[in-house]
Amino acid sequence: MDRDRAAASDARSRPHRRARRGTLSRSGVRSRLSGLLREGAALAVNDARDGLRDVGDSSASSLAPSVFLVKVERGVMKNNNYVVRDPSTAQAVLVDPAWEIETLQETLERTQSHLSGILVTHTHSDHIDLARPLAEFYNCPIWMSREEAAFSGFQSRHLIAIDERPWRVGAMRIEPILTPGHTPGCVCFLIGDNLFTGDVLFAEGCGICFELDEAHAMYDSLQMLKTRVPADTHVFPGHTYIRPPGQKLGDIMRYNIYLQFTDRDSFAAYRLRKGQGGPKVLDFR
After folding, report:
1. Three-state SS annotation for 141-203
2. Is the separation of the CB atoms in 116 and 93 below 8 Å?
3. Which of 26-30, 76-80, 151-155, 258-262 has the lowest mean pLDDT?
4. 221 strand-pairing partners
5. Residue ranges of the domains in the chain?
């Protein structure tokens, strides 16, 4: 059943990834993304209040209770960050924080949230840029999968490498679901009836893959989500293309082409199809 939703947000972001033979060389992708990142880094960061709507503003778009959207962008790249708050204790977690620390801190203040930890779906820069500084400032843990920590070499005294065992922050039960494909250690986080998918699943698509084994892993991860996660779960991805965050998984299963495939090879052939270079390197559909 749809519920009232509340949101906070506008800010700034970006991604990266390695390339696949036949579509775009590794050096080509890295060169393309490096240029975009330099372009983004050159931009002046807007004032933290610029475009930020008070969550109490009735004109703000609504999301699930205790889920607050913070849109961040840098250059041509746009991301969704989320503050997930337990209303009974005011404890909160941040999902994939990036780029505008003042905006995120203002959102925590406006929602009267106490930051108790940071959830990292994967370690691409646009999903982890602010994990360390926020963890230092709030003296809170950074949770990411053991696989992602090993793959990326990410280090922090606040890092807690996790498996799929759930834990609680306040009254919120946080269930990590390992979903490799986009990276070897990608994780989705199920919190109540909200699923935070990073770059694994978008409303209209799925995360980009460059190698056959990555595409096969992505297929397996998406199939697993279809059977493991209830259809009425609200999906909150790391990027928005057309439909806003919070779509029900059951609805996404009907219109997302990547969830229609029934075998790994057909899925992989489509996910790795040619013509996804150039500007499309940032279009994960």
Report:
1. CEEEEHHHHHHHCCCCCCEEEECCCCEEECCEEEEEEECCCCCCCCEEEEECCEEEEECCECC
2. yes
3. 26-30
4. none
5. 26-275
Average pLDDT over all residues of the chain:
80
Q: Which long-range contacts (CB under 8 A, 24 or more apart) does 211-217 make?
A: 211/20, 212/268, 212/272, 214/181, 214/182, 215/181, 215/264, 215/267, 215/268, 215/271, 215/272, 216/264, 216/267, 216/268, 217/180, 217/181, 217/184
26-275 to CATH, choices 1.25.40.10, 3.60.15.10, 1.10.10.10, 3.40.47.10: 3.60.15.10
Its pTM stands at 0.77
Instruction: Quick: pLDDT tens for 216-238.
Output: 999 999 999 999 999 999 999 99
What is the per-residue pLDDT for 127? 87
Contacts of 105 (CB under 8 A, 6+ apart): 48
